[in-house]
Amino acid sequence: MKSYQALIKRELLEHRGAFLYAPAILLAALFLLTVFGLITEDPDMMLSSNMSLGGTQLYRYAMAGVFALWSVYLIIALFFYYADSFSADRRNNSLLFWKSMPQSDLKVLTGKALAGITIFPALLLAFAMITGLLVYLISFLVVAKMPFLPMIGPFDMVSNWVQMGIVGAVFFILNILWYAPFLGWVAGLSTLFQRWSIPLAFLIPGALLMVESLTSLSASSSQPIADFLAYRLGTGLLDDKKASELFTGDNFSAISLIVEITSSVNWSDMAIGLVFAALVVYLASEYRRRRIEA
């Protein structure tokens, strides 16, 4: 267990720019720009003064938007992380250092994979929670500019902030697990082709889609590759209509929202994707082991 902790800590030190510094700079810049814009610019009066949503519901929607945006950043950052981490130590010769220690290639790559699904999402979850607090602070300026807007009370804010944080953590985890096959795909390519893994991750599926479209000339012909990619990339974790009902309800609870989200997940397809990602890690470790020993 201590060896895994050391491996994960090493990944944090090597990739703290993408998961610590860049999010902090981005959050600070957006906060300052938003505050400056609210102070210097005239308010947008297109908002209706007869809004049906109260301050509590508006804050839930804001928190949901915050987690949605940070989850997009997380998936993109993890894509580039796996495209680099599985081959980075081959470029800087640190692979020889790890081979000199009693750590197998499987353990090293498993540590990289675990870092991507544990410590990095936890960091961005913390940034999302901080963003939720900043949204509440910004709401004071917004209400000062547009007094007709409802304002959530501090106690309700804390309650909804905590509950939405719990929901956001579950949302982060499910997102990572759902997109695990794509992350495993680019990680496997990184083991084989190093820096070429990013363009190949798009070129290979693109070429397959082109061949599939050319061979499927009739309208009734099936396109399994296109259907699979559209399904895995376009499936949401919660229906918009159902989400609206949960966010605007007076008896909102994190448990009810989590139950609704988890019940909408296709767990069998998620399990298949996780098996594929785990198989990629194992095959990548075998390739590294044989390549170094050869």
Question: What key phrases describe this protein's structure?
Answer:
mainly alpha, 80% helix, 0% strand
- Strand fraction equals under 5%
How many beta-strand runs?
0
Q: Unreliable runs, pLDDT <50, ≥5 residues?
A: none
- Helical fraction: over 70%
Mean pLDDT: 82
Radius of gyration, in angstroms, nearest whole number: 23 Å
Oligomer state equals single chain
Largest sheet: none
Distance between the termini: 29 Å
Structure description:
The chain has 294 residues and is mainly alpha-helical. The chain has one domain (2-28, 52-214, 221-293). It is 80% helix and 0% strand. It contains 13 helices and no strands. The protein has helices at residues 2-14, 16-40, 55-91, 94-99, 105-117, 119-145, 154-178, 180-193, 197-215, 224-234, 240-248, 254-263, 267-293. The longest helix is centred in the N-terminal third of the chain and has 37 residues, at 55-91.
Describe what is shown at a glance.
It contains 13 helices and no strands.
What topology emerges from the helices and strands here?
Elements: H1 2-14, H2 16-40, H3 55-91, H4 94-99, H5 105-117, H6 119-145, H7 154-178, H8 180-193, H9 197-215, H10 224-234, H11 240-248, H12 254-263, H13 267-293
Helix pairs in contact: 1-5, 2-6, 3-5, 3-6, 3-7, 3-8, 5-6, 5-13, 6-7, 7-12, 8-9, 8-13
